[in-house]
Amino acid sequence: MTQKLPFEALSVETLPARLGANEVLSARIGKDTSRWKVREVGDGNLNLVFIVEGATGAAVVKQALPYVRLVGDSWPLPLKRSFFEYHALTRQEARAPGSVPAIYHFDEGQALIIMEYLSPHIILRRALIEGRQLPNIARDIGLFMARTLFRGSDLSMVTKGRKADLALFADNVELCDITENLVFSDPYFDAKMNRHTSPQLDSLVAELRADRDLKVEAQRLKHLFAANAETLLHGDLHSGSIMVTDQETRMIDPEFAFYGPMAFDVGMLLANFWMSFFSQRGHEQSGKRDAMRTYLLDVAVETWAVFRTEFSHLWRTERSGMLYQKSLFEDQGDLLGAEQALDYVLHSIWTDLLGFAGIEVHRRILGLAHNADFETIADEDMRATCEAKALKFGRHLAVNRRQIHSIDEVNTLAALIEQESRI
Ligand code: SR1
Ligand code: MG
């Protein structure tokens, strides 16, 4: 019987000795550990990420830490998040082949995953800050969301299998707790770890925290997030969880995976395009970003269109689960009934995604975990102007989501707010 070693965080120095005997890794990158070059590149909030290059190839080693990296060991966080990330990645690969990095090895005790080194991919958020227009992201992300969200739900899965999976991911308690607090509640009161661009945003922040309609809506969305175990979500699908080249798009980091409402992934993702839109003004040092702004609004439209089209296609061709079963509709020749039900489901996703998008914008400006789109704007007055516009946009989406009927309406609202000179 092999003895289980206690967890120990890797470092650039210890990694070759610790993983030199790992046959999967050495088969990929070469056995000679003296030729391994190791870099720690983790720029996320939680984990260690190493790129290991050897004589014959490269791989990524991602390891969870027993605490939140962004905050330090005063905020413990269980290592089991890497178990959920591994299981989410295997399901995403099965449901949307080619959309995630290949997994080479998982070590539960050491909370580490060895996976494909994506190169020359960069983080989508970085690309958007640089003003790069990626031609395929709307298609690739729209397909990924439709396939994973549909195929992980009771529209597709055998119910026994889905319930077993639901039970497995229900244990991802601490990561859900982060989202429940950081996304849905902390931004709306003076929570300990919050920060915002101050003093420029102080009065707007006070206004939002006194906004009863907004707070009620945020809690209704939290209720939906916690209680609607509809499908296996990525759980943290923002532009920092996506790697891109001009041709390719891969989703990474699903450690927040759990069973929740479909609209959550879609709303969080679209919010990140709209935040990028509002941040562009702060990145115009080497020229106007008008074309980039147009591109981002177009990407939002196309992502939602691809999602709807693919989701509708799967509805018509793969609806084999216990929900809206064919015996009630198609098998009785009632094709219109199936379409009516599809419209209902898509409409619910639409209304809810607007709410999730609105509060995702708020938490990135008011909460603990800000995003680089705004944070890299060095001029604080300029940053505050961009953030204030995004905050107003987010508030409008969250509170008025039931009265907004198309993504063009949302984009018109974004363009109007962007043109306002006064904040
Ligand atoms: C304490 S973790 C903060 C944020 O980082 C992750 O990427 C999630 O978005 C989480 O909310
Ligand atoms: Mg992450």
How does this structure look, described?
- This protein is α+β, with helices and mostly antiparallel strands and 423 residues long.
- It has two domains: 13-116, Phosphorylase Kinase, domain 1, CATH 3.30.200.20; 122-419, Aminoglycoside 3'-phosphotransferase, Chain: A, domain 2.
- The chain has helices spanning 15-19, 23-29, 81-95, 124-130, 137-151, 159-169, 173-182, 202-209, 212-227, 262-279, 290-318, 335-366, 372-375, 380-400, 407-419, and strands at residues 37-40, 47-53, 58-64, 67-68, 72-76, 103-107, 112-116, 122-123, 231-233, 242-244, 249-251, 258-260.
- The strands form four sheets. Strands 1-2-3-7-6 form a five-stranded antiparallel sheet, sandwiched between helices.
- Helix 10 (262-279) runs antiparallel to helix 11 (290-318), helix 10 (262-279) packs across helix 12 (335-366) and helix 12 packs antiparallel against helix 14.
- Bound molecules: 5-S-methyl-5-thio-alpha-D-ribofuranose and magnesium ion (MG).
Question: Outline of this structure?
Answer:
Residues 38-278 form the Aminoglycoside phosphotransferase domain. With 423 residues, this protein is an alpha+beta fold.
